[in-house]
């Protein structure tokens, strides 16, 4: 499916800077472009998704995307927008992280078919590891002046001492190393374009300059804006840290909830950046949202598309069911269908009580369970009254009488009982 890549990115709000001639190059021929990804973890998080979506649109437009895992640069640290140097990785960890990242990228990019523009993954450690320091400063360092390097914003900021004790030589040399990556890919696979976040502009343009001087070739740069939230907060961070793509770090339910809960203004921006929905589809959703903001059509569609893309249709449907358990009229059957990880995600933060599995096996009256064993009610009298008003549920089923006997048959995942007092007060009882 060939379309104008730059135009596509432009209406999606995904272009911050673009080097003159880039659009003409892309219209002239199938072009190879790369994005660098930091391999310091064995999962991407949603902060990576903007550049991943750039690569996805690039491949859809008929061009060849390359994901460069920064194994060598991950061992150094990049001064752009950061006030601290990174932790350094050993090679075994790097390789593990690279494999895990490739698996995640495979949900966005086609690495495996025989199309001419199939995606490629490379690791700069492979060509940097045997490059001696003397060879590097002789063959690469001589082409770029210190004056040129000092003029970069990222270097200026660190030299001005922004939140730091200055800039190490290691980090100062980073733009040369990244510039050489671009030069190497230009020479070996004809890569003519590097893309990344707007904080990378200085490093990318150093690469185009090196290519001009070392390879005698013309190369291009394109960056996207750094994503922010309407309230100025940092995108992709929650109270519990990053929102990861790996379901072991961020459950699909929590991932889905993150997108579902973004504000209206952010949803309108994010749906252009993180989905492939057409301009017409997005405009229709925006109009729907304006007509009935309480129905949140933008957030629902955004959460659906991105959860299916990152996880699967099944994971999305499970997340929707899980949301209904907390916020809708779910049944006991729906609750029983949740796996343990999702159950714990949904009820994270609700009060928890532990009871003895042996006592439960013998049977405990509900009134004793919810007052003595777990402080769901302050007194038996209050519990009795709430049961009569139909306000007590165990595993989403209304308690018919306060002295009903509860035993291990009621355990969810062989371990949990969900008690509910009124509509919104949940309690998790754990049998140990």
Automatic annotation (TrEMBL):
It is an enzyme of class 6 (ligase). A motif ('HIGH' region) lies at residues 39-48. ATP binds at residue 237. PROSITE patterns: AA_TRNA_LIGASE_I, S4. The keyword Aminoacyl-tRNA synthetase applies. GO terms for molecular function: ATP binding; protein homodimerization activity; RNA binding; tyrosine-tRNA ligase activity. L-tyrosine binds at residues 34, 174, 178. One of its GO terms (biological process) is tyrosyl-tRNA aminoacylation. Signal peptide: none annotated. A motif ('KMSKS' region) lies at residues 234-238. It catalyses: tRNA(Tyr) + L-tyrosine + ATP = L-tyrosyl-tRNA(Tyr) + AMP + diphosphate + H(+). GO terms for cellular component: cytosol. Belongs to the class-I aminoacyl-tRNA synthetase family. TyrS type 1 subfamily. Catalyzes the attachment of tyrosine to tRNA(Tyr) in a two-step reaction: tyrosine is first activated by ATP to form Tyr-AMP and then transferred to the acceptor end of tRNA(Tyr). This is Tyrosine--tRNA ligase. It comes from Candidatus Caccoplasma merdipullorum.
């Amino acid at each position: 499916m060939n379309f104008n890549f730059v135009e596509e990115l432009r209406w999606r709000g995904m272009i911050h800077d673009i080097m003159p001639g880039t659009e003409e190059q892309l219209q002239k021929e199938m072009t190879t472009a790369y994005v660098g990804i930091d391999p310091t973890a064995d999962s991407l998080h949603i902060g990576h998704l903007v550049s991943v979506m750039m690569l996805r649109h690039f491949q859809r437009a008929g061009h060849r995307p390359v994901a460069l895992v920064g194994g060598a640069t991950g061992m150094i640290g990049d001064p752009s927008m950061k006030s601290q140097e990174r932790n350094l990785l050993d090679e075994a960890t790097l390789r593990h992280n690279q494999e895990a990242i490739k698996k995640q990228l495979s949900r966005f990019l086609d690495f495996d078919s025989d199309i001419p523009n199939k995606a490629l993954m490379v690791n700069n450690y492979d060509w940097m590891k045997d490059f001696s320091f003397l060879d590097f400063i002789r063959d690469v360092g001589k082409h770029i002046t210190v004056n040129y390097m000092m003029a970069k914003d990222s270097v200026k900021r660190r030299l001005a001492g922004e939140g730091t004790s200055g800039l190490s030589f290691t980090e100062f040399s980073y733009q040369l190393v990244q510039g050489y990556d671009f030069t190497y890919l230009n020479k070996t696979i004809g890569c003519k374009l590097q893309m990344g976040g707007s904080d990378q502009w200085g490093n990318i343009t150093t690469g185009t300059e090196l290519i001009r001087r070392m390879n005698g070739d013309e190369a291009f740069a394109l960056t996207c804006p750094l994503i922010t939230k309407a309230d100025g907060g940092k995108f992709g961070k929650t109270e519990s840290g990053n929102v990861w793509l790996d379901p072991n770090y961020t459950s699909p339910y929590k991932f889905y909830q993150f997108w579902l809960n973004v504000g209206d203004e952010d949803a309108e921006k994010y749906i252009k950046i993180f989905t492939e929905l057409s301009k017409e589809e997005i405009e229709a959703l925006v109009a729907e949202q304006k007509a009935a903001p309480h129905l949140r059509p933008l957030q629902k569609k955004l959460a659906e598309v991105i959860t299916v893309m990152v996880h699967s249709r099944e994971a999305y449907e499970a997340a929707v069911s899980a949301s209904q358990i907390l916020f809708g009229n779910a049944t006991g059957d729906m609750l029983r269908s949740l796996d343990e990880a999702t159950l714990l995600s949904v009820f994270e933060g609700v009060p928890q009580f532990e009871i003895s599995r042996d006592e439960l096996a013998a049977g405990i009256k509900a009134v004793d369970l919810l007052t003595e064993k777990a402080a769901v009610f302050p007194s038996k009298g209050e519990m009795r009254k709430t049961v009569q008003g139909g306000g007590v549920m165990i595993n989403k089923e209304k308690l018919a009488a306060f002295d009903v006997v509860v035993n291990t048959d009621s355990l969810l995942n062989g371990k949990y009982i969900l008690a509910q007092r009124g509509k919104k007060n949940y309690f998790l009882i754990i049998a140990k």
